[in-house]
Amino acid sequence: MAGDAAGAVGAHDHLDRSAVLLVVLLCATWGFYQVSVKVAVEGISPVLQAGLRSAGSCALLMLWARARRIPLFDRDGSLWWGLGAGLLFALEFMLIYWGLSYTYASRSVLFVYMAPFVVALGAHWLIPGERMNVAKAAGLAAAFCGIALAFADGLRLAEGEEWIGDLMCLGGAIAWGATTVLIKGSPLVRARAEKILFYQLAVSALALPPLSLAMGEPGIVAATPLVLGALAFQIVVVAFASYLAWFWLMRSYPAAHLSAFTFLTPVFAVLAGILLLGEPLTPAVVAALALVALGIWLVNRPRLYS
């Protein structure tokens, strides 16, 4: 997931039209991400799929860094912290991909996007100057109510296993939030965004395929054009191009103004699941989506308006 890099002071003090269009496009891309995982899981086991995604994106990132002469292997005191971030990243995507084999894409995003609230709580206790304020507390309360509503709705679904996937995706959100707190509170905060992403992709690419084998996953069972296309979308568009675009935005524009738009991601994800996968839309999911989106906006809104 994007947003793990610390935002530098941007070259612009506000978002222009191009930046707004790009950040909305990125949110739409991340919203369609869960759908691509659901499509690919029909032919590639979930944990192996997460590992293949990381391996492919890591290879592209290394080529990009080589072309741009960005050092990825210099000694800067971040190695052990980077390995820790990579292990949390691997845990995050193992849980999310595995969870999506049980629950709907349109539901999973509600749980995955509890990550900003994990960050807000962790930063309050562990990072100086990142104290909880009234707006963040209100956002946390709104999101918690939304998640409780979505989880209760999952328990009533006929299939009976959605709650398992919901809990896994919530675990992935906790791992994502912990990764961000680790980065913000360690020497990684001074590292280049590309190097932080490299740590995460490289460690998960090495860890997840053997884990998939140990779990007894069947692996690649149907390498259809649709399945391979969905995996390619994850590798090229999501974990490589969209993350680099987000990091560029974070370096060029105010991070708080950009982060306020991330409430759009769960909206796009729910719409994508309904329109592309024919997933059910219940009143409880609509209410939960509204509460979670409101919570994300309150937690990330620019301080100018606090």
UniProtKB/TrEMBL annotation:
Residues 18-151, 164-300 form the EamA domain. Keywords: Membrane, Transmembrane, Transmembrane helix. It is found in: Membrane. It is a multi-pass membrane protein. Its main location: membrane. The chain crosses the membrane at residues 20-41, 47-67, 79-98, 110-127, 134-152, 164-184, 196-215, 227-249, 256-275, 281-299. InterPro entries: AA-Vitamin_Transporters, EamA_dom, EmrE-like. It comes from the Bacteria. Belongs to the EamA transporter family. This is DMT family transporter.
